[in-house]
Amino acid sequence: MARYQLILAYDGTEFYGFQRQGETRTVQRVVENALKELGWQEETILFAGRTDTGVHANGQVISFSLDWQHEDADLLNALNAKLPGDAGVRDITRVKAEFHPRYDANSRSYVYRIYQAQARHPILERFAWRIWPKLDQKLLTSASQIFQGQHDFAAFGRPMKPGSSTIREVFESRWEPTDDGWEYRITANAFLYHMVRRLVYIQVETARSNLNLDELRAGFTNPTLLHPGLAPAHGLLLDRVDYGNKTQELEDEQN
Q: Which of 62, 91, 190, 198 qualifies as a FRET site for 35, CA 20 to 30 Å off?
């Protein structure tokens, strides 16, 4: 019996989020169904984080134990053969039995995509939020810098467990121009529920001059200054979960 870590990618459009919800089509459910066909006998997989309905992933991390008598590459291929076309295993690694993809993570990185166009583009629309008129680059950049560092983000999301801390440390918060719009990259030690979509929406409101930078700064302690709203789910992507030295320790033990 070995413990495995998988890097999973999925198009969240047709999934009702990641976490299992009865017979509803979720990412967790299709992964567990695929594993059951390969002899998996645990009750649940472990995963790095929940993603909402419509949210995509490039680097979701899951772990499970399985009695597999073949090469790891064969397991990757077998799982991909069982999974639907909108989900796929990108990488597989054996890890320590106590590895937990959520609690062992040092940071998580999300990407949010915006395209700027007057008319809807059906291909881009699946993975990005359409904005028009174009956003003010200077305001967008200035707004993103406000969130870097350690803050109480209670005004921008809620903890998964009631009463838990809402203090988070953001290591990176920046916008990068693309051919047709913008890409927001944010990395933090952890995130609150809806935090990234809320941050994106507020920054867009600022770049539209519907909210000024002083109001945005004051919003940490006075949320009534901030306009209600969330950026659409389909622009959001869980890009990467980082384990730092813990990953290196796992690799060293396997060599």
A: 190
